[in-house]
Amino acid sequence: MSNASVEKWGVFEAAFNGPSGGNPYLDVAFDAVFSQHSREIRVPGFYDGDGVYRVRFMPDNEGEWSFRTRSNSTELDGKTGSFVATKPSEGNHGPVRVRNKFHFAYADGKPFLSFGTTCYAWTHQPLDMQAQTLETLKQARFNKIRMGVFPKDYPYNVNEPLYPCFEKGTDGKEDFDRPNPVLFRHFEKQVAALCDLGIEADIIMFHPYDRWGYADMSAEQDFRYVAYLAARLAAYRNVWWALANEYDFLLDTKPMSQWDRYFHILEENDPYGHLKSIHNGEQTMNFDHRKPWVTHTCIQNWDVKRTQEWRDAYGKPVVNDEPEYEGNIIQSWGNLTAQELVHRFWITMTRGGYAGHGETYSHPEDLIWWAKGGELRGEAWKRIGFLRELLEQDVVNGLEPMAGAGEWPWTRVSGARDGDVSYIYLGEHQPIIWSTGLPKDGTDYDVDIIDTWEMTIRPAKKVEAPIPHPTRHGAIVRGGKADAAFGVELPGKPCQALRIRKKH
């Protein structure tokens, strides 16, 4: 038995010296087969520069594991080793998976409610700013971050990146057949830092906002790049794969068949089956998330009241990563009030989906969170953290909408439940009394009024449920009787929610 050990769902790494001449990225095939009892798992290896080859493995079971390498290079072929996978440490719950069709949980069963933010190019900024980003994330309550592998050329984000993504050739241009190990070592270091904070890294592989030529790589170069990412990063338990930010803006150079092939390459080279999705630009251009290789629905859409529609269309968890951003820049997608972004979070969550945050406040040096990280200057993030704390107290299986899409009055207000706990979000509506969605089977319930902006919780005053005058809609008569066992008084202002808990 080896003395080497790593905790379950940790990263085991083995390194070997091998050929450095020619182009090892193209010339050398290298992988390893990890075994425990009769089970075998193929894991791709990768070249890390300076004649060093690495293979990384995330054990999903405790006990002894062994491995044997395979290569077309005699220097790398037939190497063996072993290690022991130990009990996971506190805070290590494994990778996130889909659970209960529309929701997520860690591998150990702990529910995962996605509360994400966006910092597209934070790993390409000066090191002190990256350190500041991590410090900010320690204080905020986000548990997922969208981040690109490639730097970005876009308004508010025009600075040169810290490192090039590929090595430079003799002509001074980046050689897309030679990934730059310095860049990728740094990137994976930051992925590991996020893991230490309990934050999922939603890794964006491609995007259109480019001046370096990455968006114009050949199909073969793209395929090798995707496989290389999988080999380097798949062993980190906090990885999610986002194939693109706004894939539809790249269709003239990367046709649809190519996007499906990227998914398949991940299936072939990520033995752990990390979550995989893809993100649209135009609101009419949602990817076909019904495809079996897509694990969840990734959406960019301001109309968050459509969340149930997307659940019904795709039959998978809905993550609206861009319901627009809090800020004040000139672009309309980046000048929401903090109140409006919080409002959209609540609507999304109480219709059975998950939402994403971004912050775009104008800055004289373009130090904008959504682009570069650094500091949060807005107010939404505090209220989003409050929402997360609320839901994590109650939600076990995932919030399910109270009614089908299109049912009155849930087209206007939002409500969802998980077991004996329900949340009703009234949003822009400000009734002084409410009963719809409240229990029909008696008064053995605690009802709290939540002010989603002030972040206060107080017991609701129960009153007799109102009985609306019966109103005819064709052959259907609405009203004429109470729709719940009781009603509650409300303060008559917007941004109020109700939490209903059955007494035990």
Helical content band: 10-25%
Sheet with most strands: 8 strands, parallel
What is the CATH fold-level name of the largest domain? Answer: TIM Barrel
Regions with pLDDT < 50 over 5+ consecutive residues? none
Rg (C-alpha, Å): 25 Å
- Strand portion, in percent? 25-35%
CATH C-level class of the largest domain is: Alpha Beta
| Beta-strand segment tally | 33
> Which structural class is indicated by helix and strand composition?
alpha/beta
Task: Supply the CATH architecture of the largest domain.
Answer: Alpha-Beta Barrel
Number of domains: 3
How far the N terminus sits from the C terminus, by CA atoms, comes to: 51 Å
Mean pLDDT: 96
The CATH superfamily label of the largest domain reads: Glycosidases
General shape: globular
DSSP helical segment count = 9
Write the layout of secondary structure elements.
Elements: E1 5-7, E2 12-17, H1 24-27, E3 30-36, E4 39-47, E5 52-57, E6 63-71, E7 80-86, E8 96-99, E9 103-106, E10 111-112, E11 116-118, H2 127-139, E12 144-148, E13 166-168, E14 174-179, H3 181-196, E15 200-206, H4 219-233, E16 239-244, H5 256-269, E17 276-277, E18 297-300, H6 307-314, E19 318-322, E20 326-327, H7 338-349, E21 354-357, E22 359-360, H8 369-372, H9 380-394, E23 400-401, E24 414-418, E25 421-425, E26 433-434, E27 445-451, E28 456-459, E29 462-463, E30 471-473, E31 476-478, E32 487-489, E33 496-502
Parallel strand pairs: 1-7, 11-12, 11-21, 12-15, 15-16, 16-17, 18-19, 19-21, 20-22
Antiparallel strand pairs: 2-5, 3-4, 3-6, 4-5, 6-7, 8-9, 9-10, 13-14, 23-24, 24-25, 25-33, 26-32, 27-28, 27-33, 29-32, 30-31
